[in-house]
Each structure stands twice: as structure tokens, then as C-alpha cells.
What we know:
A: alpha/beta; elongated; B: D-Maltodextrin-Binding Protein, domain 2; D-Maltodextrin-Binding Protein, domain 2
Amino acid sequence: MKKNQFVPQLPYGTRDFLPKEAKHKRMVEESLAKLFSSWGYDEIVTPTFEYLETLSVSGGAELAETMFKFFDKKNSILALRADMTTPIARVAATRLRDNGPLQRLFYLTNVFRHEEAQAGRQCEFYQAGVELLGEADAAADAEVVALAVQAMLDAGLTNFQIGLGQVEFINGLMQESGLSKEECQQIKHCMVTRDLVGLETILAVSGVAEKTQQVIKSIPLLHGKEELLEKAYGMINNEVSRAALDNLAHIYQLLKYYGVEQYVNFDLGIIRDFDYYTGMVFEGYTPGLGFPICGGGRYDNMLSSFGAACPATGFALGIERILLALLRQEIDPDCNEREVYVGWNNGSLHKAIQEAVKLRQLGKTVELALTAQNREQAVESQKGRGFAEIIYFGD
Amino acid sequence: MTSSDMDYLTIALPKGKLFGLSADLLAKVGYTAENLSEKSRKLIISNEKEKIRFIITKTADLPTYVEYGAADIGVIGKDVLLEEGKDVYELLDLKFGYCRMMVAVPKALKREKLSDYAHLRVATKFPHIAERFFRSQGIQVEFIKLNGSIELAPMVGLAELIVDIVETGRTLKENNLEEIAQIVPATARLIANRVSFKMKFDRINKLVEDLKSVMAEEAAQ
């Protein structure tokens, strides 16, 4: 490289999708859009930026720290959206209020978070997701989980697992335990940060009964199929936790009817975020990717922050994470091939254009030469650019 | 490769003082491999029979390998975990490798209380931990990140204070430094990638249980 040569840099946390990557991304997004539509979900598009005040309502408060913020002409603070759940809640609670109680919405969009870049996640990243608003029944949760499974299958993944938990199970246990509010906060913090050593330390000095300590310590390890629910019923003695387990059993029963139960494990250690989720929560995992590929759950309090109380459940999938997982698992999405190269020599361009138009109408992928070529040059171009066939006018 | 291979468990071990202790403890529960040595020239040491892979990493990098899932589990000091702040499961306190993170000052520069050191310079290998500590005390100081030989900094006037880990305190004494505040004690921890812990749950959970019983037996002796 020459000295003093200008090399344009990209800001931290952004990336280009070069043609091949963009094509894979488009294919995955198209298959997801088709799937969501076929389940009766309607697409929704909201502004890329909104007032910070709006985006940081309710569960958005924690996200607000990671938002990209700037000012408008009147010095109001604006922010780039950090997820789609908050904007959708805003729209549902205001502009869609009269459309009836039940809303099924989906989105495919970029979101922005100012945080350390992770595998398959830059500061700007793409999400696909759905929100099912207006129904509190387990049937809505089961639909969302089943749709998440189908979304991963349609994206081309075959080897993945969904972990299904319920935040009310832990909340019930906390109330039952007699721990102080502060201790409960500390315990929840340890669970969210996955610090099982810290959890043990706090419990050891808390003075609660040994049996309760054992139960709380084992929460992150409560992982399994249906037998796990039986085991968990035996560990608790309060209505809130019991209702949480009943809810999971109900969802699982419905997932069996959907025929997707083989992908689902119970995992009562999944929490995601206590302030945000109010019921069932889930995460999706696939080998080769150290981070969850999708996640979601029930968040019944969010819409009331916008003045229209309404139960809600949904999930989001990381598009880049899907692409990365497909790459790592060496699953090559079958891109449509380059089919026909149309070459021509002086005097034959009109024929070449007409042929290209005709072939494109038949649905072929066609590239038309832009300069006159002799037959050898045309064949060379065809091979070099990876086209299966050649049609040549001239000679 | 590595954690994408569901049959294998990939274990990251740190170079340095924790390596031998970790390898010995894991060997007691059947997790070992031929030629597993810190001096190995191979970067990945496999035990094909037991389906285990070991990788040996630089201490500060170990949590990154685990966070990204390049290794399923690993052994690392709590000091490094606190400093790196990576999103991993902290599964078990292995009790060895005890040290403590503390603030020290040359005896000649000692002042009455911690707040008297406001606006001075602190040399450390652990800027995040140091910053969190001083912030929690409401004391504003300036941090200078160094990669080793922290004790040298106050001797040559690069900084007035140091934040470092000590085991016995001998190095401090030899360099005429005095501990003025303890930040946090640290021991070795078993950590796991958040996805590996779910997808390879049975195997990792059994390993944790086995380690617990070995440690309990040893403690009883």
C-alpha cells in the first residue's frame, strides 16, 4: 500500500454485506417473511429513530444506556431503535388501538446498540421477529415458540434447541423463601449474570433454611424434558411457582400438537431480564455459536407504559447469527445459479437484447454482454463469471 | 471444530500458576489427555477416547475463548473474570489459586485515609476493577494501565498507588510497599459458555458434581 493513500474506515460496530453475503441474508429474510405471513402475521415498519423518551419507556430503560443518541433541531434527544418491541408496543397502544384487541405483527429490520461487538452481532445488526399482542393464554405462547422453531427450520438450521423457562417460577420461590428484598435483588443479579458461585455465597450468609437454599441454588440447573416439571413441582410450596409450572406444562402440551416438542427443553434457569418479562421466556441455541440465536417471552406490562394495558408475547431472531451458524455448520443455502450469458458481436446487439428480455421473462438469470465480443472472448466471459450456459449472436 | 462439535468437550486452561493445579484436579475426575503440559508445542491436545480437547491460552484471553464458545468450559481466576467482565457461567469455586486484589502505596507516601489519595495516579494491570473500586469509594484518581511489574511504577514516579493481586505480600514488603485497602479476594473458578452449558448440560453438570465430590473428599482429609 502506498504511503498517504486514503483508506476509508468504517465506524466501530458496523459492517458491509458484500454481494454473496447480502444474497444469503436476503434469502433467509425472504423465507422468514413468507413464513410469518403464512401464520397470519402482518409486517410493520417503524422509524429508525424516535424520541429517547419513547424508546426508554418501561423495559427500554436498560437498553437506553446502549442507545445511539443525538439531537434534533429543537434539541430534543433522539435515539436509534435498540429493539423493535418498544416501537411496536407504542404503535399498538396508540395507532392500532382501534383495530381490535388481537394483533399479530412481524418485522425484519436493523437495530442499533452501542455495546462491545460479539460473534454475529455488531452495533448495527438485523433482527427478524414477531409480537403477538392481546392474548394472555398459553395458546399464544405456544404459537410463538412453535413459530420460532419453524423459523429456524425454514432458515435452514437443523440442529438446534429451545430452552423454555418461566420467570414467575423464580419470583414465587423468592416470595416463599422469606429473603429480604435486597437479598432477592442480589440473588436475581447473580442469576442474570450467571454467577452460581456468588449465588451460593449470598445464600450461605442469608440465614434461610438449608432446604430453601438448596432449591434456589438448583434453579440454574433445572434442565430437562417433562420429568423436570415433576421434579420442580416437588421442590416448591407456593401458588405462584405452581401456576408457572402449570403454564409451562400447558404450553408444552400444545407444542406437542404442533409437533415441535423434540426441539424444546425446559430450563427454569432462563431469565433473560426480570424487569421486562412476566411469564414464559425462551432462548434458542445451535452448535458452533456461543451466543443464543433467538430469544423471547411474555411481557404483559410493557404496553401499559404506553397507556393501554395489553398482554403480549413474542421473539426476535438474529439474522447475522443465523448466517454465521449456517456457515459454521457448513450448510450452504442454495443460491439461484447464474444461468445464461448472452454475448454478441458487432451488428447483433439488438438480437441479443431481445433474447435477454425473452429469457428473463421466462424467469432465467441472464447477464447481457455490454461490449462486442468474438466467440472466444464471450465463452471466456461466460466461464469467468460463472454462467452455466451461453447464447451467442454474431459470426 | 471446537464447541460446534457436539461429541467433544473443549476445556481451556490458563498458562501460569493455575495450569498445574487445574490439570491435576481435572485428572482426578477423568478429564486428562496424554502430553497435557503447559510446555506442549501442540496448541490443541486431544483425548480421542474420552472425547476431550484441551486448549492452553494466555490468562487474560481465557474468558474470551469461553464467551465465544471456542472452548466450552475453562478454569480461570476470579480476578481475571472481574476484570474482563465476559458473559459466561461461573459454575464452581475451585478454592485454589487464592490471591487478593488490593491497593498499595510506598511507605513513604502513606496518608491517613483512602480519600486522601484523591487525584493521584494508580498503576495497575486491572483498570476495570480499580476503576470500579475507586468509583464505589467516591474517590477520583487517574489510572495507568501496565502489563506487569506494577511495583516498579511508584519507585520511578510513574504512579503513587498501585492496584494489584498479592498472594503472600512478600513482593510488597521487598519493595517497601504497604497495603492500604483490600478490594476483593479471588480464587480459581470453573466457567462455561452460556450455550455449551445448555447444549452439553448433562456432561458439564456431571463434571461439576464430580469435581464437588473430589473437593469435598480432599477437604475432609
